[in-house]
Design a protein that fits this description.
Elements (H helix, E strand, L loop, with lengths): L2 H30 L19 H34 L5 H12 L4 H8 L3 H18 L9
Helix pairs in contact: 1-2, 2-3, 3-5, 4-5
């Protein structure tokens, strides 16, 4: 795993969390909307007797349990990234990496928070990634 992949793990997990939250929202809308009656002319012995909203509620429960685990894993990943960033020599680079990968802030927000231009923060970020890549133990160049 490269240093960049290591640093991006919280972003990927956060993306998965957002997708699950949207699915839960859709299931809630489906569970609360009225379903149309079944007007089948024949009797089916294998027909599901549960109301449609019950299936959606079950799916919501499963996804909420997964979300709890994902949130805990996200906190662990952010902590791991934060500890890995601690070894940076330049405090400015360390701060930019911490804002970006521990607090999951966008570059524009980092620039606003630090009161620098976006262009400058992008330069510092690029330089910080190069230095992190060299110092991170899992990076290919760190084993030389």
């Amino acid at each position: 795993m490269t240093a960049r992949e290591f640093l991006n793990q919280p972003f990927e997990l956060q993306r998965v969390i957002r997708i699950k939250e949207k699915r839960i929202q859709c299931y809630r809308e489906l569970a609360s909307s009225p379903s149309s009656p079944s007007l089948e002319p024949h009797y089916s012995a294998t027909r599901n007797t549960k109301a449609p909203f019950v299936r959606y509620l079950e799916k919501i429960n499963v996804l909420e349990e997964e979300l709890i685990k994902d949130y805990l894993k996200l906190e662990d990943l952010k902590h791991m990234v934060d500890v890995a960033i601690d070894g940076m020599e330049d405090p400015m680079e360390e701060l930019v990496l911490r804002y970006r990968y521990s607090k999951l802030m966008k570059i524009d927000d980092i620039a606003r928070e630090m009161q620098y231009s976006v262009r400058w923060i992008k330069r510092v970020h690029a330089r910080a990634l190069v230095h992190f890549e060299k110092s991170h133990p899992s990076s290919p160049s760190g084993h030389c």
